[in-house]
Amino acid sequence: DVIPVNMNTLRLEVSRGRDKALITKDRMRVDVIAEFYVRVAAAADAVAAAAQTLGLRTMEPEQLKELVEGKFVDALRTAAADMTMEELHEKRGTYVRRVREAVAEDLTKNGLELESASLTQLDQTGMEFFNPSNAFDAEGLTRLTEQWVHTVRLTSIFLPPEAAGAVLASAFFTSVSCEAARPAPTPSPERRRKARRSMVGMARVMPRARLSTRPRDGGADPVSFDLRVNNMKTSCWTTG
After folding, report:
1. Are residues 41 and 71 in contact, defined by beta-carbon separation less than 8 angstroms?
2. Strand partners, 23
3. pLDDT tens across 107-142, in order?
4. Model's pTM, two decimal places?
5. SS3 sequence, the chain?
């Protein structure tokens, strides 16, 4: 029998998330999406191995993925268990290299070689997918809770109220009970009436200033006259 073997590069996408997310060294869960580019090695023994172990699956990427996906998932989990979530984010190149090293040997048994691999998505798994009855998840939940409590305390100490509200809204809903944070009460009708009476009284004690431009003694020089504002005089000279 003649079995055709596809020698082109195939793209296989593997995603792990939610309840199937990876567990890191610090017991956190992370959702990842990785892309692997594989092909049958250009060697007689590799082509023979691919034809014998894979059959026609090299012609159908989805069928090939179903067969070798377990190898990729195992490599992703093994590499993630040796790094913290922060290290995965900051050292993606190191993580991808470890994954490639872990999966390369297993692929050769099927006549395949890993051309390249890339980590296209990395994010923390939502807390609703942590299982408290699982020892790993319980430890991760405890760590997350401690981090959030610490963040809330630091935010309430160092940030102004308007900035602290924006930061804390994503983690906790808190209530403020201090006097300084309460809005000023609305003045009662009696207070408003008293305020108006006090303003009227001030206006009567301090009458509005009057401006006088009448010449002094009725016969002053029309070119020179005084501007009088209450008890203050200022000489003003004009030229024709």
Report:
1. no
2. 29
3. 999 999 999 999 999 998 888 888 777 777 777 777
4. 0.57
5. CCCCCCCCCEEEEEEECHHHCEECCCCCEEEEEEEEEEEECCCHHHHHHHHHHCHHHHHCHHHHHHHHHHHHHHHHHHHHCCCCHHHHHHCHHHHHHHHHHHHHHHHHCCCEEEEEEEEEEEEECCHHHCCCCCHHHHHHHHHHHHHHHHHHHHHHHHCCHHHHHHHHCCCCCCCCCCHHHCCCCCCCHHHHHHHHHHHHHHHHHCCCCCEECCCHHHCCCCCEEEEEECCEEEEEECCC
Per-residue pLDDT, 150: 54
Q: Quote the tokens at residue 134.
A: 């699982």
φ, ψ at 121 (rounded to 5°): -150, 135
Q: Residue 160 corresponds to which tokens in the numbers above?
A: 């102004």
Report d(CA 58, CA 54) in Å as an integer.
7
In sequence order, which residues have a C-beta less than 8 Å from that of residue 225 and are 6 or more positions away? Answer: 213, 214, 215, 216, 236
pLDDT score recorded for residue 178 = 40
- Model confidence over 8-58: pLDDT tens digits? 999 999 999 888 899 899 888 899 999 999 999 999 999 999 999 998 898
Which tens digit of pLDDT belongs to each residue from 210-238? 545 555 555 544 444 444 444 444 444 44
Residue 132, classified by CB atoms within 10 Å of its CB into exposed (0-12), middle (13-18) or buried (19+), is: exposed
Contact 14, 33 (CB under 8 A): yes
Q: If we measure between CA atoms, which residue out of 12, 135, 128 comes closest to residue 76?
A: 12
